[in-house]
């Protein structure tokens, strides 16, 4: 299998994930702006999850771009990542439907943490496949952002048992960390 097919399949799955998330938001029955108020938690959870899926899509592009060959381990590691990402709509829907209740924040954080672990596994699988001196290995380096994200997810999960606002702040902070583009990646891959 070539990397184009792998990327196309992954892009399709990610597009479906976003589509499922937006389909969870129902049109209000009223005609007044006040009728939109119950949708605010759902919309906020959708925005956060849309950002996360977008971040994964963007970073996944660079992972696949770095590949010179695809093997079975990469295919399975990629499917593992897509599995955890496919659970984002459920966690997002539950969180938005129940106004960021503690249990929903715990589940959301768990899905995010497991998605990040799956991404790390895919990343490491590609680096092993391509070699420790590969372009991707050089770009990733010590992966400070990745490790910081995992710590913040764990903080968010633990905090969700006590205060859902702290939990939400941790998840939002991770999204902000990844929204800031890493110019090194584009610079290295554009060479």
Note down, in words, how this protein is organized.
- The chain has 191 residues and is mainly alpha-helical.
- It has one domain.
- The protein has helices at 3-23, 40-65, 72-86, 88-97, 102-130, 135-140, 144-160, 164-179, 183-189.
- The radius of gyration is 18 Å and the shape is globular.
- The protein starts with a helix and ends with a helix.
- The mean pLDDT is 90.
- It comes from Flavobacterium pectinovorum.
- It is found in: Membrane.
- It holds the Pfam family TMEM175.
- The chain crosses the membrane at residues 6-27, 39-57, 77-95, 107-127, 151-180.
- This is DUF1211 domain-containing protein.
Keywords:
mainly alpha, 0% strand, globular, 191 residues, 77% helix
* Total DSSP E strands: 0
Number of domains: 1
Mean pLDDT: 90
Elements, N to C (H/E): HHHHHHHHH
What is the count of helical runs? 9
Strand content: under 5%
Short structural summary:
By secondary structure, this protein is mainly alpha-helical. The protein has nine helices and no strands. It has one domain.
What's the topology here?
Elements: H1 3-23, H2 40-65, H3 72-86, H4 88-97, H5 102-130, H6 135-140, H7 144-160, H8 164-179, H9 183-189
Helix pairs in contact: 1-2, 1-3, 1-4, 2-4, 2-8, 3-5, 4-5, 5-7, 5-8, 7-8
């Amino acid at each position: 299998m070539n990397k184009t097919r792998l990327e196309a399949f992954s892009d399709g799955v990610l597009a479906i994930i976003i589509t499922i998330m937006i389909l969870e938001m129902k049109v209000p029955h009223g005609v007044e702006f006040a009728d939109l108020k119950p949708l605010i938690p759902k919309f906020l959870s959708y925005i956060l999850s849309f950002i996360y899926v977008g971040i994964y899509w963007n970073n996944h592009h660079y992972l696949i771009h770095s590949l010179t060959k695809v093997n079975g381990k990469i295919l399975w590691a990629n499917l593992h990542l897509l599995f955890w990402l496919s659970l984002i709509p459920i966690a997002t829907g539950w969180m938005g439907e129940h106004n960021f209740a503690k249990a929903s924040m715990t589940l959301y954080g768990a899905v995010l943490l497991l998605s990040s672990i799956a991404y790390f596994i895919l990343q490491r699988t590609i680096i092993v496949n391509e070699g420790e001196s590969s372009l991707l290995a050089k770009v990733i380096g010590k992966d400070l952002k990745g490790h910081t994200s995992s710590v913040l997810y764990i903080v968010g999960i633990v905090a969700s048992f006590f205060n859902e606002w702290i939990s939400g702040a941790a998840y939002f902070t991770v999204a902000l960390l990844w929204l800031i583009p890493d110019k090194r990646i584009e610079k290295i891959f554009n060479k």
